[in-house]
Design goal:
alpha/beta, Arc Repressor Mutant, subunit A, Rossmann fold, globular, single chain, 3 domains, five-stranded parallel beta sheet
């Protein structure tokens, strides 16, 4: 281990500390890794690609994440982008460390010359912190055991948001959207694991389909962030997951807008405080089932100005019959904001599908994709040898959630075959042409914008394909 001295600063790689004239500076793990790597190179120019490879290794990040870390490293050294007395930007190339540096090996009697860098890629070290490291929540660990294929760009965009968390940055939002079974929760678990590996605190909250419990995911997440000995603001009492506090009236129950506002503001401040030592990532699953109180709280947090090293990862269905207008409004307000990613998931491509099902020469991948439209839930029901798709149980469960009139329409259409003319379907159902699917709120054949449906090869323009409806 080494100690680097320059100006009024010392960087100790043994204790993972940056010590300034006023004492130890608060530096996040990846910021320390960037600073350490630059120091190890002396005054040599370090390219951006070299920094990304050696600090993040095979992790999915972009230059924006690196730029944020450089900004934070400068701040720890009382430097900035204008002065650049410590870290100089070489435009279009990379960075170099400017001051003369004395390097002392731990235990050595005197300073030695700067040694060449270790070329082995490293993961950011975990610096000492007053907030203990937490294991990933059980739900995320269980989800992460399932196969993960494809989604390279979606993962990259999500990681960029999470790893840019900082005290002076706005709260980050990652929306993961798509139909049932498309892999929203799986991608959320992967992003959570990436954040956890970077030193973040990660907590998880769900929304139940049947219960619609007020503030359910936040009750669960506050419980994961607190212990019996913790002192929390009185306004957060409705979110404390203890039997005594659960019996107290929640602001949504008494319909007091003033109390709700106090609760929302108190939670926002409390989350920011919890993230001062380690960035905090909240994972909120199945937002389409959220109670109105939960959606109000999410809207308040998303629209609230201010900065905090907090990120929120949310999953939601955006197809009928689960899509909700209030969730669509939340996503609409998120578009264009800083530290925000809206990730729309479609079916996997042939390469990712083959990786997921482990297909060999016996499976016709083109036919498999035609039957499943690349939906991972259905792909995992594929026989990898013969390519047969065993999805009856999944389809039956999905159909059971649809209104009775929609189920009647689908039963009628199933008799017509895999492909059918809409005029024939209309006549069979005693409806006007092109009407059979539209008056049904869960009419899956018309539940998604046409430009996002998988193409139907060789189908006439007035034909539909029953399989594309059943998978929704």
């Amino acid at each position: 281990m080494s100690r680097f001295r320059f100006g009024d600063f010392t960087v100790d790689t043994d204790t993972v500390e940056v010590i300034g004239p006023d004492g130890v500076r608060d530096v996040e793990p990846q910021v320390f890794s960037v600073l350490q790597y630059l120091l190890e190179q002396g005054d040599r120019l370090v390219t951006k690609d070299e920094l990304l490879e050696n600090v993040w290794g095979n992790r999915f990040v972009s230059e924006s994440a690196l730029t944020t870390r450089i900004k934070q490293a400068r701040r720890a050294l009382d430097d900035d982008g204008n002065r650049q007395w410590a870290i100089k930007t070489v435009h279009g190339r990379g960075y170099r460390f400017v001051p003369e540096v004395e390097r002392v090996e731990q235990g050595a009697p005197a300073a030695g010359p700067t040694e060449p860098p270790d070329p082995t890629p490293r993961v950011a070290p975990q610096r000492p912190s007053s907030t203990p490291a937490r294991a990933l929540p059980d739900e995320l660990r269980m989800e992460s055991r399932r196969p993960f294929c494809g989604r390279v760009e979606e993962r990259r965009h999500g990681v960029d948001v999470l790893l840019s968390a900082a005290d002076d940055e706005p709260v980050g939002w990652v929306w993961i959207l798509g139909e049932p079974g498309i892999g929203k929760s799986r991608l959320a678990a992967e992003l959570a694991a990436d954040a956890h590996a970077a030193g973040h605190q990660v907590v998880f909250g769900r929304n139940s389909e049947d219960l619609r419990v007020p503030y359910q995911p936040f009750v669960e997440m506050v419980g994961q962030l607190t212990s019996d000995d913790d002192v929390v603001p009185e306004q957060l009492a409705p979110l404390l997951p203890t039997p005594t506090e659960r019996t107290r009236a929640r602001p949504s129950d008494v319909d007091d807008e003033g109390l709700r506002f106090e609760l929302f503001e108190a939670l926002a401040r409390w989350l920011a405080e919890r993230a001062t030592d380690r960035p905090l990532t909240l994972v909120v699953d199945d937002v389409h089932w959220a109670a109105d109180s939960t959606l109000q709280l999410l809207r308040h947090l998303q629209q609230r100005p201010g900065a905090a090293a907090v990120s929120v990862v949310l999953t939601a269905r955006d197809t009928a019959p689960d899509a909700r207008e209030v969730v669509d409004d939340l996503m609409a307000t998120a578009q264009g904001r800083a530290r925000t990613a809206l990730l729309h998931l479609d079916g996997l491509d042939e390469r990712a599908a083959a990786e997921l099902i482990g297909a060999d020469a016996g499976a016709d991948l083109a036919e498999v994709l035609a039957q499943t439209a690349g939906n991972p839930l259905f792909l995992q029901a594929v026989d990898p040898v013969v390519g047969a798709v065993h999805i009856e149980g999944a389809v039956r469960r999905r159909l059971a959630t649809l209104p009775a009139e929609v189920q009647d329409t689908l039963r009628m259409m199933s008799v017509l075959g895999l492909e059918f003319g809409l005029a024939v379907a209309a006549a069979a159902h005693d409806l006007d042409e092109l009407v059979p699917v539209h008056p049904c709120p869960g009419a899956v054949l018309a539940s998604r914008p046409a430009e996002r449906r998988p193409p139907v090869a060789d189908a006439p323009p007035d034909h539909e394909r029953l399989g594309t409806g059943l998978r929704r």
